[in-house]
Structures are given as structure tokens and as C-alpha cells.
Amino acid sequence: MEVEMKIRGLMMDPVTNMPIVILKDVQGSMVLPIWVGVYEANAIALEIEKVSTPRPMTHDLIKSLLLGLNTGLRKVVVSELKDDTFYAVIWLDRDGDLISVDSRPSDALALALRLDCPIYVEESVLKSSKLASSVSDKASNDELRRMLEGLNDEDFGRYKM
């Protein structure tokens, strides 16, 4: 089963100093942090902040290609968590035909923002993520999870790299 999520914001992991995309379910009870690369976080941040660039970025180019080919973005799904790596699927709609495309979650999320489509996470991924955090470094993961769950709007100012 898929759970609809929204991008709540971006933050830096205080331990690894890596960017984290924070997904929160639409009911507001579950939080899923996904660690991403610096460039991927920047692509997401540019769209969150509605910053225009002088030339199209990669995700803007993909958006233009999809629109030019009359292909819609139906949804993106964070579909799997395997060996601490998240996987995603982009679901395209072309003339009523659904096409699935394997993707990194960061790219799928950047496209979802640009094309205003829903973001989902498989329930099994949410469960695996909770299980993984209880198995590995419990103290720091519990601390991070408490911090993520307690975030409010003031905690997310403008994202800076």
C-alpha cells in the first residue's frame, strides 16, 4: 500500500553534514528522512524556493521534454529500501498508457515538485526504515527521529548549501 507524502523541507544531518529531504505523510503522523547528495538537494531546494536559473537545470529539461512529448507525470513512489539505499519509480502517463521508470528518489522528488504531482512511499519502506533505525545506531537515530518529528515551520527557513 502506498502512503501519500509531502516534502516538508530540507535540512543538514548534524552528524554527517549531508542533506536530508524530509517527507511527511499528509495526515502528519509519519516522517521519512532520505539522505541525498549535495547537488540533488540543491535541485530540490531551487524548486522549493522557486529560484529561476539562467539556463535550464537537468530536472527542468526533463520537465520540458515530458511536456513537449505530451507525457504527464502521474506520481512518484519511493518503492524500496534495500541495503540502506532508497529506490523510486516515476509513473508517466502517455496517451493513457502508464510507463514506469526506475529513479533515484532525489530525482523523482525534484521532478514531482516541478510537475506538481503526488509523492507516495510504499508502506513497507516506512516499516523497513523504522526497523532499520532501531537495529543500527539506536541512540543517534532515536535522537534524530525525535528531532525530525518535532520540527515546525520556523525550523525550515531558506535552504542553504
TrEMBL record:
SUPFAM superfamilies xrefs: Hypothetical protein TM0160
Gene3D superfamilies on file: Bifunctional nuclease domain
Superkingdom field: Bacteria
Recorded coiled-coil stretches: none
InterPro entries: BFN_sf, Bi_nuclease_dom
Domain BFN: 2-133
Xref: PROSITE patterns: BFN
GO molecular function, one term: nuclease activity
PANTHER family: VON HIPPEL-LINDAU DISEASE TUMOR SUPPRESSOR, VON HIPPEL-LINDAU PROTEIN
Record's protein name: Bifunctional nuclease family protein
Organism: Candidatus Acidiferrum panamense
